[in-house]
Amino acid sequence: MTVQLPHTMRLAFHGYGSPEDHQVDMARLRPTERKYVELFRNPERRQASAAARIAGHKVLDSLGCNHVSVLPDDHGAPEVLSIHDGTTVETVGISLTHRKGVAAAVVSADPESLAIGIDIEDPNPSLLKTLDDFFTESEQSEIRALKPVHAVQRATAIWAAREATLKAIGLGFAVPARCVDVHIIDETTGTAKVHNIDEFPSDIQVELRFGTIDGMTLCVAWITSHSLQQLRNRRPSPRRTFAWTGIQKTFSIIQEERT
Ligand SMILES: CC(C)(COP(=O)(O)OP(=O)(O)OC[C@H]1O[C@@H](n2cnc3c(N)ncnc32)[C@H](O)[C@@H]1OP(=O)(O)O)[C@@H](O)C(=O)NCCC(=O)NCCS
Asked: pLDDT 10s per residue in the chain (259 long)?
């Protein structure tokens, strides 16, 4: 599986699914990461979340970024924190996804494009029933012009691009799906524009790359018009309390990793 990314961005995968492998993955995580993963009651969700962090560490290690943990911020967006003092590592941006036994992480070390997102989607015929509600008018006309099998593929790719874009902004589906307008250029590339979000008066421009893994569609999105800090600072308070905030990434927890 290849996704054509700039050399400043890297992607890694890690499989999950067996309880034995999960034990191995858990042992490789930082204590704080384990605490986060253990919050999930669903065993598959726990396996997926651990595997995504292992994929994240693979990429971060390859960039020489070693003494770090990958933990969610108050919106659930992953960030890279120094294990020495709990501060955010400002030189990289990270995103995680997991679906059907495959976890993936993408990291950007491009100072101009640290806001990055990734998503993996299964081809999903039922997306065609949601076109009016969740797809923009231009996306709908592109999809409706295709034969059914291609229409499903196109709708799935657009959906993956939408989720990857919303992760790059750090909001996820806290904003309406139709604020993201996806334009697919060919099988491997595309662009998106995000508009009509109160906090962002000007449009957000997005670059997209596509690939496939185990019959699923993968999309990486990165923001070219705004910095990661601009995007993170303008987010409204989370709509509901994210479970992790009950534990908090306090310095005392992070210090455990040094012992
Ligand atoms: C982000 C979102 C699109 C993820 O989609 P998904 O298809 O369910 O799951 P994926 O496997 O592709 O991605 C999951 C990863 O997205 C990341 N993620 C979650 N929220 C995110 C956000 N706001 N911004 C960026 N990335 C986010 C996390 O790393 C998560 O994995 P982890 O919990 O193991 O760390 C979706 O969960 C969402 O919209 N969340 C925000 C809206 C919301 O309900 N917020 C309340 C928080 S409790």
From this structure: 689 999 999 999 999 999 999 999 999 999 999 999 999 999 999 999 999 999 999 999 999 999 999 999 888 899 999 998 889 999 999 999 999 999 999 999 999 999 999 999 999 999 999 999 999 999 999 999 999 989 999 999 999 999 999 999 998 877 888 999 999 999 999 999 999 777 777 899 999 999 999 999 999 999 999 999 999 888 887 766 666 665 555 544 555 555 4
Is any atom of ligand 1 closer than 6 Å to the C-beta of 78?
A: yes
Contact 4, 188 (CB under 8 A): yes
Nearest CA owner, ligand 1 atom 37: 172
The answer to whether 10 and 55 are in contact (CB under 8 A) is no
Amino acid identity for residue 229 in this structure = Q
The alpha carbon of 246 and the centre of ligand 1 are apart by a number of angstroms equal to 18
Q: How far is the CA of 32 from the centre of ligand 1 (A)?
A: 19
Identify residue 89 by its one-letter amino acid code: V
Indicate which atom in ligand 1 lies nearest the CA of residue 78: 29
Residue with tokens 């005392």: 252
Give the separation between CA 50 and CA 52, rounded to whole angstroms. Answer: 5
Q: How far, in Å, CA of 229 to CA of 115, rounded?
A: 9
Q: Which residues pair with 39 in a beta bridge?
A: none
Domains, the chain, ranges and CATH?
Answer: 9-111+236-256 (3.90.470.20), 117-233 (3.90.470.20)
Verify whether ligand 1 is closer than 6 Å to residue 167 (CB atom). Answer: yes
